Queue: 2 jobs
Job 1
Amino acid sequence: MILIAIISLGGIGAAGAALLYATSKKFEVYEDPRVSQVQEVLPAANCGGCGFAGCAGFAAACVKADNLDNLNCPVGGASVMEKVSAILGKEALKTEPTVAVVRCNGDCDARPQLNQYDGVSNCAIAAALYGGETGCSFGCLGMGDCEASCNFDAIHINPVTRLPEVIEDKCTSCGACVKACPKNIIELRKKGPKSRRIYVSCVNQDKGGVARKACTNACIGCSKCEKECAFDAIKVENNLAYIDPVKCRLCRKCVVVCPTMAIHELNFPPRKEKEADSTVKPQKIQPETAATVTPENK
Amino acid sequence: MEYVLMFIAAVFVNNVVLTQFLGICPFLGVSKKIDTAIGMGLAVVFVLTVSTLFTFLMQNYLLNPLGLGFMQTVSYILVIASLVQLVEIILKKVSPALYQALGVFLPLITTNCCILGVAILVIQKEFNLLQSIVYAISTAIGFALALVIFAGIREQLAMTRIPDGMKGTPIALITAGLLAMAFMGFSGIV
């Protein structure tokens, strides 16, 4: 009995193995070995930031493509693309590292709440319904679609300000939050030397007075920064200033002239002539400390 | 008529997930999006039908004549596992599109208890071959139905405000329980 059992089970197993072997030989699909090589150097985050379905799709596209001009892994950045190009023998385009930047600084103090939203807690749905709980119909809704979209735990809604904050070390600039934000507040900007960068932290396109009334930190399109900029990096369009990250030389003059403190500087050392700047957080200038560097207080 | 009744019984009255509590793992695991739920459901329909056919044949023409009924479970697992592997290899070559759609789910359901459960139930109930196939297909459709309904509810749940302690698995289990109670309402129609 035992013998029959062993023989029959072994027989089934052996028959199955033989059958599998035969079919796997017969139905073999040729896969370029370079695809798995490329896949090994990729970050394996499967975030889709490259525009392909996961790292496997990106690896296949890299092998297939004639050149790597349009292919870039935003998570791995230049170092990973270098490895990929070494495997494939194709030139990879040099890309500057970027990082997600939240262009809204309308925190609870700056942007008074005018009404109470009681619907589904989802930015995309809330944005389709109306302009938000405050007078600014451009600003952050604060329901955390960006937070939910992030695969890297790099963006979180600050419970105090109800604005998202990017953890720079974790951000891979995959662009998931950029797509998730229905208000187009988040932008991928050049990381800059020593992570120093200057940007207009507002997307409000209302006329100056309207914007100012809705939010004290809004860009009012006064063009002061545009005039101050010596490098032609700032353009005011639709009552909103925009700093071109490529042209900007990080001179910080625009930060000082902005009457609403809508222009933010990140990771700069404290200004020398100011004394009370030890309270400056590395992330962003707080409104109180920024006030000390405005021309009126000089 | 017999087969229609068998279909209704297997899909609604004795739903494999919500009444017999088989295959709970993918029911909770792959039910966050309707798309993946449909993919999983299709894969289960496919694998369950094929594996039931093969295990039925093996039971009646190999195990029973040799008097090896006690080896049912172990030999079933062996056959189902290699069968799914076989199907996967062939599918990859013959239909890459279908392989892409089912690819992830095929190996997942190899050792699913609802596959093995149905293969054994069919023998226990002493069905003939045609009855077994109909039973397997309708059970799998019942599984897919439960999965898709549950995924739909969970998609809605994801956008609602849920108390912190209930987020994730707890609310999913409560929902599954309520859904099972709803399916209890079908009991007695067949």
Job 2
Amino acid sequence: MWAFIHKLGSPKWFYAISERLMPWFWVAAVALILIGGVWGLAFAPADYQQGNSFRIIYVHVPAAFLAQSIFVAMAAAGFVFMVWKIKLADMAAAVMAPLGAGMTFVALFSGAVWGVPTWGTWWQWDARLTSMLILFFLYVGVIALRGAFASRDSASRAASVLAMVGVINIPIIKYSVEWWYTLHQPATFSVTSRPAMPMEMWLPLLLMVLGFYSFFIAVTLMRTRSEILRRESSKRWVRELVGEGP
Amino acid sequence: MAFESVSAFLAMGGHAPYVWTAYGATAALLLGVGWHARAERRRVIRELRRRARRERRQVESTRVSTDEGHAR
Amino acid sequence: MPRVGEPEGGVMVAIRATLRRDLVLLLRRRSEVLNPLVFFALVITLFPIGISPDPELLATIAPGLLWVAALLAALLSLDGLFRGDYEDGSLEQLLLSPQPLPALAMAKVAVHWLLTGLPLALMAPVLGIMLALPAGSYLVLALSLALGSASLSLIGAIGAALTVGLSRGGVLLSLLVLPLYIPVLIFGAGAVQAAILGAGVSAHLAILGALLAVAMIFAPWAIAASLRISING
């Protein structure tokens, strides 16, 4: 177990293994998102209440899922970095933050666009959108804190602590915002949480969610590899690797 | 197929602006992130190569100058 | 095991010493204690001027206004929580002491609450009168603020500890801390709303207490870790 963790923490080993894994995730991401997207846009039946605007669900929900998962993954990486001092975990956390912020933004944007045909307004203080907005601020905080330090080690550790504090708070924020929303607007129309989605609506959503997760893994692997080369640029194996090419 | 024709598909039952804006923004993010990851990788490798070349040249030039010193 | 040349007594003595030192220091610099209170009163003055002096309208928004203004006042005072100690080097002494840092950090946060959160809570009912806050909610307002501001001090201290080493950490500090304040704000303002509506407030206060308990479990460790990062980095 320990040997495995330390092996996994070795940038050189990770660089080699990720080279073999990454293409599979890219292929899965492209295939799943294309199939799910076409299915959701053209073949899934329109919603009896919302008509075709309901198709926004196929980008909104995967983006929202990913936005939350990336924060948890980032905090987990921060924890691994703080406890075992594995630099690789910090590199992964560093490249995850901007992607998570981007996903949160897209979830917010598609939610706002979806709001026009369903609520008749660009923005409603809906529980889901509000907690997404708060999540976006949390991401911005982590990115800003990492950027504020002059030394890389302090920046990494500070960002890790903040990500862990944030991840403890996310469920608290989520539940309190939901409670607040039900208190102020009882029994309004909720866009996504409704009973029994039929199979032909639900399956493309599953494909899209899986595709978005594959995309996240592929991008994280790729950017972590770049980060490894950048931070380990004076190591011998990196020199040999780079020197091989033309 | 949920639509009879291509134009019906593009019109999205009157919800075209919303559906296509949301999908467009998502596609832009995904493509942008993917493109950025690729460009970043290329940039890093290019910089490392340039540095390796520069260091090699430096090593060679110092060797040449010491050789000259011995010749004299 | 006590070594030679170290005072006897252990953690409790260290906590008491930190408490006394911080209290004395802050009470000597009275403006630092008074400024958040003046800020609180000023912000509350701005709203009737900016919105409308209509008592009915003010009464409906008063719980939220009072809570948001108190929260901002508490936030304003956070930057000074560790700044002075960082600049004169006594924070480093605190880190070097053999006593557990989380306990000492808790003592500092307790002083901060005692001289910021508690006065804000005591002052809020007076400002509530000015905003035509309906009768019967004044005690709940003070109680919810007293309870909630303790959580605010604890969470805020994490942000203050993370940014104390940065030369311009003030804006960054509010960016880090404000999203984390939202649950406290929801249940604090909710308690006052519930009191106005005549509903039970014990659930709200219980949740505020639960939030405080969670903050007391996690925050001291996070503050200690953050202080170590800021000092060693």
